[in-house]
Design a protein that fits this description.
Elements: H1 6-17, E1 25-26, H2 29-35, E2 39-43, H3 53-67, E3 73-77, H4 81-92, E4 96-101, H5 107-115, E5 119-122, H6 127-141, E6 144-145, H7 151-167, E7 173-177, H8 182-194, E8 199-205, H9 210-217, H10 240-249, E9 252-256, H11 258-272, H12 278-292, E10 301-305, H13 312-319
Parallel strand pairs: 2-10, 3-4, 3-6, 4-5, 7-8, 7-10, 8-9
Antiparallel strand pairs: 1-2
Amino acid sequence: MYQPTLAQLDAAAATVYAAMPPTPQFSWPLINEALGTEAWIKHENHTPLGAFKARGGVVYMDALRQREPGLRGVLAATRGNHGQSVAFAARRHGLQARIYVPFGNSVEKNAAMRGLGAELIEVGADFQETREHALRVADQEQLHMVPSWHEDLVAGVASGWLELFRAQPGLDLVLVPIGQGSGICAAIAARNALKLATRIVGVVSSHAPAYQLSFRAGQSIAAPVTTVIADGLACRQPDPQSLGAILEYADDILAVTDDEVAHAMRLYFRSTHNLAEGAGAAPLAAAMQLARDGKLRGRRIGLPLTGGNVDAELFRHILQGP
């Protein structure tokens, strides 16, 4: 089980800060009013890529270059933010990046990856098919594939959690969206390294419930993916490494519907004028569930707004909702 020391996480954070500054955390009055409690929003939508993944790619690529100085390029499978992270970090090191995405992927995330210099290839009906194809190509062509979960990715992402926990060490609960698990594993690593008692609860899409089903069963369970809005949560098969940490250290996993996510996206925009993509709004959607059930009274909570990379046309449609 990957359990880095605080010194190791601080060293990874130093690598992150060579590429980007820390992001802010704010407690917005209208969000607090809607939840009936004090909430601190960690604005990972303010990274250079508009998403938390920027942190992990920088640390991973730095360590990879030290291990393999002769490396010329990398490839990855993604729905968007992981691919942007890989392309961003590869370009910093003068490496070529080939990124595989599913057909029908976010138009604007695709454009962002191309803008970062990546070669973009569409293949597969969903992320799992895309990932399996990329793995075959990596094996056939002897290329380095950047995984969706790795200790270096987790260490980099943990820098954001160190920032939040050090700024607000008295949080009772944080809610963390789960795609392939690097975000929640980073939250666990930071909390444990700082020896805090904060509860960590994962959030999945009701239309992609693999991690919730696996958490409840205590073993990996695949599930179909039908979410339209929360593409960053579109996981059909849990990553075995992240699942191990989640089973041991997470306190619970909640599921939110696309309608609830859309409501949270509107609330973020109307209350803070920040864009939130579906996965980025999922923690707020889960907090709204808990608030309706009276489970947040007197509890200070942390909500990572993990990304704001949403296509304009989709967001226009969502804003028209109630």
